[in-house]
Predict the structure.
Amino acid sequence: MHIAIAGNIGAGKTTLTRLLAKHFKWEPHFEDVVDNPYLDDFYHQMERWSFNLQIYFLNSRFRQVLQIRESGKKIIQDRTIYEDAHIFAPNLHAMGLMTNRDFQNYSSLFELMESLVAPPDMLIYLRSSIPNLVKQIHKRGREYENSISIDYLSRLNERYEAWIHDYTKGKLLIIDVDVIDFVNNPEDLGIILNRIDAELNGLF
């Protein structure tokens, strides 16, 4: 079984991944942020490093999805391969931070990879307002994220909403993190757990 959590930078994906993995006894697979050799360079010089960063993420997540399917375990994944292709790469291209040539090359590679992997059994989307994202980003204090602009976050949010609106690859659960505080409120976490239980009981 493969559950995946999607959402903008600072929406709470990693935290919810940990909480759900602990509760349901699922194996967590996290985004490769610590060992990513391009992230710091990217946030300081986006145009130069955008293609390199996106290829790194694509490669990393493709490997993850293959491992998830091969393992046969119940796994929860922090961010999906689709977010890179439908949100981050097109956004960089639209902002003039990735060339047409690089974007076409990237898109072609993603289409090939997508044809070889199955989508998650259930996608959990964390919806958040920009002020809430900014607050969470500042709270966790990752140095390379200090230069992220509100305009950049807003563009990503618009693309997330458009992608989720048309998402038909499987079960979809939307959680509004402006309203549901699963970190500080056990009752709110309980609401999420109950909704997941209901979805999964219908699934399997």
